[in-house]
Amino acid sequence: MLLLSKILLVIAAPFMGSFLGAVITRWSSGRPLYSGRATCDCGQVVLAPRDMIPIASWALSRGRCRNCTRGLGRLYPAIEITALVIALWSIIALPGAYIWTGAAFGWTLLVVGMIAWRDGKLPMAVIAGVGIAGLLLAGSNGLITLRDHFLAAVIAFTACFVLARPLNRWLQRQFVRPGDALLPAALGAWLGWQGLPDFLLLSIPAALALTLLNRAFLPFHRDRVIAASVCAGAWLAWLYPLGLIN
């Protein structure tokens, strides 16, 4: 049964990545997340099933729409491959009962991080859903666990909210908005207060890796790196609790 669950997760991951790619692009462009049948980004060509096979369709069409020849960019195959990596990583790192939960958490943070990376702003509705899901998961493990995770959300929100003004004053620009505190709060709801130091520690190598990636392919943008590294650090802290606070 566990083997079947792992196989299904691996099969589902690229298709989930294709869906996540659509969510990211539509969120960024302001288009409805659901608008009937799937279309090319130009919005004029309805895609056939053969156009929506993850990774393969993009490769066979050489990154262009089969009908309008419009370039599709590299976002979709990149998200599909990343979604598959997240699924495989969850299978390797987590007990069998948690592989789908870990993959779902990673996939959702991928959406948050990519929207922040592309647009420089956070998808608050998605982040609120992340926080609620974290508290529900904690509640399923008992009231004490729920208390610890709710406390972590409060601590993370308060710390970010309080530090926002002096940080903005020091940088002499609006680097952190008060509403941005919702992201660390949502992540704290998944990690618990004991996991907050792990989260901060693991966000550092994530930030360094993403900074190098950003400098290699794009003009450096500190805001997008910070938001994406926070998401990556939280997922790593959930996968690999270091136990800095026992």
Shape: globular
Output the helix-strand order: HHHHHHHHH
**What amount of the residues lies in strands?**
under 5%
| Number of beta strands | 0
- Give the rounded overall mean pLDDT: 80
What does the radius of gyration come to?
A: 19 Å
Which structural category do the helix and sheet elements fall into? mainly alpha
Largest sheet: none
**What is the end-to-end distance?**
34 Å
Poorly predicted runs are none
Q: How many distinct helices?
A: 9
- The percent of residues in helical segments reads 55-70%
Q: What can you tell me about this protein's structure?
A:
This protein is mainly α and 246 residues long. It has helices at 2-29, 56-60, 75-93, 99-119, 124-139, 143-171, 182-191, 196-217, 222-239. The longest helix has 29 residues, at 143-171. It is globular and about 50 Å long.
Tags for this model:
single chain; 246 residues; 0% strand
Can you summarize this structure?
This protein is mainly α. The chain is 68% helix and 0% strand. 35% of the residues are buried.
Task: Describe the secondary-structure layout.
Layout: H1 2-29, H2 56-60, H3 75-93, H4 99-119, H5 124-139, H6 143-171, H7 182-191, H8 196-217, H9 222-239
Helix pairs in contact: 1-3, 1-4, 3-4, 4-9, 5-6, 5-7, 6-7, 7-9, 8-9
